[in-house]
Amino acid sequence: MKTRVRKAVLPVAGLGTRFLPATKCMPKEMLPVVDKPLIQYAIEEAEAAGIEQFMLITGRGKNLLEDHFDHAFELERTLELRGRLKELEMVRDFPEPSKIQYMRQQQALGLGHAIWCARDFVRDEPFAVILPDDMVLAETGCLSQMMEAYAEVGGNVVAVGEVPREHTNRYGILDVESDDGRIAKARGVVEKPAPEDAPSTLSVIGRYILQPDIFAHLDKKQKGAGGEIQLTDAIAATLGTVPLHGLRYQGQRFDCGSKAGFVAANVAYALAREDMEKDVRLAIMELLK
Question: What is the third-level CATH fold of 7-287?
Answer without folding.
Answer: Spore Coat Polysaccharide Biosynthesis Protein SpsA; Chain A (3.90.550)
